[in-house]
Amino acid sequence: MTYNEIRNYMINLEGSGIRPGTGSIKRLLSKLGDPQDKIRCVHVAGTNGKGSVCAMLSQILKESGYKVGRYSSPAVSDPKEVIRIDEEPVSEELYIEAAQRVIDTGEDATVFEFETAMAFYIFEKIKCDAAVIETGMGGRDDATNVLKEPAAVILTSISLDHMRYLGNDVEAIAQNKCGIIRDGCPVISSCSNKDIKIIDKECRKHNAVLISAATPQNIRIGDRGIVFDIDGFKDTALSLFGTYQAENASAAIEAAGVLKKRGFTRIDEDKIRKALLKVSWPGRYDKLSLTPAIIADGAHNTGAVTALINAVKTEYPDKKIIVMMAVFADKEYDVMLELLSGISDSIICTTSGKERSLSPGELALCAKKYFKDVSDHENFEEAFREGWKKAKSEDALLLVCGSLSNIKPLLFIK
């Protein structure tokens, strides 16, 4: 099969939806020889920040001289980027080979199960020294939850999202995500005190050591990203903006220290610092333009929107803000709109065009409860043009948020 044929095959799989549980993926992986059992993996779960932590930790391992695989979704611009080798999207040739091998198993799979199997196949085939694996949704019933002895588990911040599958409160969601914890495995967490109690309880069940990532101090905005202090790492510079990324970096640093003690001895402070200056993670507090000021962030739940708002208020305390938003219909958009109205009175409602998207009209109707100036556009590019013109004429910041699906159409700006 050609690459385009593979992509069409996988697009057709999207209709299979979400299938919680690991029965199907285990049967599929068994027919591939259980590649996940032959590589050392770090498993990462959480509502927000898990992708950033994966990118940072993968970069640290690469900088330390290890061949590292990373599996993170969704893709922002290139479908191949969900599977990375040394922080580069997997080659088209290897992508096709892995997909064909998965197809040849004859096993029924959702698109996420299919990509997960591809990732493990590729990481084992090229003999990765380590692989950083991000859960898709939750933990206990996620297709990635097939690791018998992960080198480490990382749990990032937890908030309400995917309640239909994970539970209706943060406690239930936290317990679900704790499902990736294994007996005797070190667990690094950047969660709040309330969530830590739940995680600690689960760790005790598994005789797993819980390590809380240090709280970043003295966070400030540098020319290339944020700078912060944590114990043992003063003046730590990160090549990402958004003050919330300091918490994610702290978790990655803590995880790197754990891995060093578990055999990855080439990791040291110098390599960690160099790696954090090379991290790239599009669509997360992504500064697309300075004149006019435009920031794109994939924040799509209340926790992420709250973190985004705090970051914007820190960096732009006196700047007028225009919000441009497209969101999926199953998200808590009413709450997110109310939160965003605390920093803006102007919003442009649009859609990314995805099947799950809320219509611009419905979003605008809800937005009128909180914003003075509300407009809506069925066409994403028209919405962006309006936002760009308003931001330029009013010397304002255009803040694009609501979904990672909004990011790809904006990448041409950079």
Task: Considering the chains and any ligands shown, give keywords for the structure.
UDP-N-acetylmuramoyl-L-alanine:D-glutamate ligase; 17% strand; six-stranded mixed sheet; alpha/beta; Protein-Tyrosine Phosphatase, Chain A; 414 residues
Provide the CATH superfamily of the largest domain.
Mur-like, catalytic domain
Rounded mean pLDDT is 93
What's the main sheet like? Answer: 8 strands, mixed
What is the terminal separation in angstroms?
Answer: 34 Å
- In terms of DSSP E residues, the strand content is 15-25%
Q: Find the CATH topology of the largest domain.
A: UDP-N-acetylmuramoyl-L-alanine:D-glutamate ligase
Count of domain modules: 2
- Structural class by secondary-structure content: alpha/beta
CATH uppermost class of the largest domain: Alpha Beta
CATH-scheme architecture of the largest domain? 3-Layer(aba) Sandwich
Q: Can you characterise this structure?
A:
With about 425 residues, the chain is an alpha/beta fold. It folds into two domains: about 5-275, Mur-like, catalytic domain (UDP-N-acetylmuramoyl-L-alanine:D-glutamate ligase); about 285-414, Mur ligase, C-terminal domain (Protein-Tyrosine Phosphatase, Chain A). Helices cover about 40% and strands about 15% of the residues. The chain contains 14 helices and 17 strands. A hairpin with a 4-residue loop joins β9 (about 215-220) and β10 (about 225-230). α3 packs across α9 and α3 packs across α10. It starts with a helix and ends in a 13-residue tail after the last strand.
